[in-house]
Amino acid sequence: MAKLIECVPNFSEGRDAGVIRQITDEVERVLGVKLLHVDPGKSTNRTVVTFAGEPDAVVEAAFRAIRMAATVIDMRRHRGEHPRMGATDVCPLIPIAGISMAETAALATELARRVGSELGIPVYLYEHAQPNEARRNLAVIRSGEYEGFFKKIKEPGWAPDFGPREFNPIAGATVIGARDFLVAYNVNLNTTSTRRANAIAFDVREAGRPKRHGNPLTGSVVSDDTGNPVSIPGTLKAVKAIGWFIEEYGQAQVSMNLTNLAVTPLHAAFDEVCRAAEARGVRVTGSELVGLVPLATLLDAGRHFLRKQQRSLGVSERELIHIAVTSLGLDELAPFHPAERIIEYRLRDSGLTRLVDRSVTGFVDEAASESPAPGGGSVSALLGALAAALGTMVANLSSHKRGWDDRWEEFSEWAVRGQALKDELLSLVDEDTAAFNRVLAAMGLPKGTEAEKAARARAKEEANQGAIEVPFRVMKATYSTFPLLAAMAAQGNPASASDAGVGALCARSALLGAWLNVRTNVASLEDRSAVSELLADGARMAAEVASLEAAVLATVEGKFGGP
Questions:
Q1: What is d(CA 545, CA 551) in angstroms, rounded to the nearest whole number?
Q2: pLDDT tens digits for range 5-16
Q3: pLDDT band at 293 (very low <50, low <70, confident <90, very high)
Q4: In this structure, how many other beta carbons lie within 10 angstroms of the beta carbon of residue 462?
Q5: Are residues 470 and 552 part of one domain?
Q6: What CA–CA distances, in Å, run from 105 to 22, 101, 260?
Q7: Is 37 annotated in the active site?
Q8: Of the residues 117, 149, 178, which one is the last residue of a structural domain?
Q9: Which of 424, 400, 410, 563 is nearest to 496 (CA)?
Q10: Which of 37, 78, 82, 400 is catalytic?
Q11: What's the CATH code of the domain at 401?
């Protein structure tokens, strides 16, 4: 797996598009990096930039962006709603794939060292890059903000990790670190009161609020035996929150950082703010995401809201996202475009055209062309996906059938299984064509010298093994659709039994078609011992598929009640 990291620097400029563009231009000039999102805020006077790519390239892009920000932003003139301490206020690196947190922290440390030495900016490490536990928290480091740092940097214990111990009046100071994926999330309220928004924020944030003697607003703060203030914890773990009024929206918000989505997911934060707001006579009107969000976050939210409605969770990815966006009110302030706001979607190579993204006519026309791919392997995968889709459809219809309300979870579980099989088989439509193209590429390698002949032979053998494994995966996934189809034929909505039967017909053709492709490619292998178990399993499934199909069709015939 290729190593991939994300960087989400926050720059203290949210109003001058020209300044912001100069900074993001530096990011886009680095090969191996993709600029994913630029999110300026007028009231906060702050821009959140998101980019990702190969680790070394991302670090280089981050350095160049920090250097440009120090050139074009003058902190002596900065004013905004958000806490800040420098032109590049904070610059986190986040592991996405193929890289550990420890490796990412080492990259952050090296970036901080370079910024401090080459740019003369005081740099503080935070989160996983900071070895000093007392200095890991961003809020603790940034306390005092820009105005207070001229004095703070001289205090014992607050020397920067890198760079001079002199506060830079133009660039300020910067915090660089490595952290888990953080979601910046604001919940909109039907009030203009910052005090009420803050009260709700204190209700939910992990740090809570100070405990006071007597009046909870004006009483003196309660201290423990050691003199430290006592806090009343909030209801949400791994959540930081404040309340503020956004003039451009004309309403207050609870602004949150969700620092561990496994502890408090997006939908849980939304629901809890709704509860806390209602308890204080305030209503939530919607919410907004700042920057990008992982796909799983919205899929989990979609499932959560479907579960609350006692509806089937086995719907498509697109529908889950739609349910999440609608339920969270993510499009209240501006249109929410998943292709632009979900990190996995933004990282997709837009230059690649997938077969599964074509229209039905486009796919069939391509299959009918003189090109050998897509061929029977891709068509078999598509037939398997259609089989899974039909079984899933029956499950979803059954979960909503009038009078079957107490069975919605039963059918939802089947639908979830069907959606997973459908998605896997759809991915194999393109993987089969890619496997065929790797075989062609191996055959085109030079074969002049003995070394070239040996390299070509190895490449052909590996490519042919791949061309066998892909249709075998089609067989396995399609084989797994039969329990779904059999259950839906027997237990699902009787009016849709015939759809389960059509699914069985598709599944049998898909499995046998994929088996033909396995056997065709085996003939090109030099050493068949590596796939001997695969072939035995494939032969077993091919031998069983007719009886599996017949069982489903017999059940369907029994539903008709006559000739």
A1: 10
A2: 999 999 999 899
A3: confident
A4: 13
A5: yes
A6: 27, 6, 17
A7: no
A8: 178
A9: 400
A10: 82
A11: 1.20.120.680
Report CA-CA distances (Å) from 121 to 146, 160, 172, 303: 13, 9, 7, 46
Both 363 and 487 in a single domain?
Answer: yes
Using pLDDT thresholds of 50, 70 and 90, give the confidence band for residue 320.
very high
Instruction: Answer yes or no: is pLDDT of 366 > 70.
Output: yes
Q: Name the CA dihedral angle for 168, 170, 173, 178, rounded to a multiple of 10 degrees.
A: -140
Contact 374, 432 (CB under 8 A): yes
128 part of the active site: no
pLDDT digits (tens, 9 = 90+) for 506-534: 999 999 999 999 999 998 888 888 889 99
Which amino acid, one-letter code, is at 73?
I
Tell me if 150 sits within 8 A of 191, measured CB to CB: no
Backbone angles phi, psi at 135, to 5 degrees: -115, 20
Answer with the one of 145, 178, 211 that is the final residue of a domain: 178
**pTM score:** 0.74
* Structural domain harbouring 268: 183-347
Ramachandran angles phi, psi of 503, nearest 5°: -60, -40
Select which of 39, 271, 432, 499 is catalytic. Answer: 432
Closest CA to 395 of 412, 420, 417, 419: 412
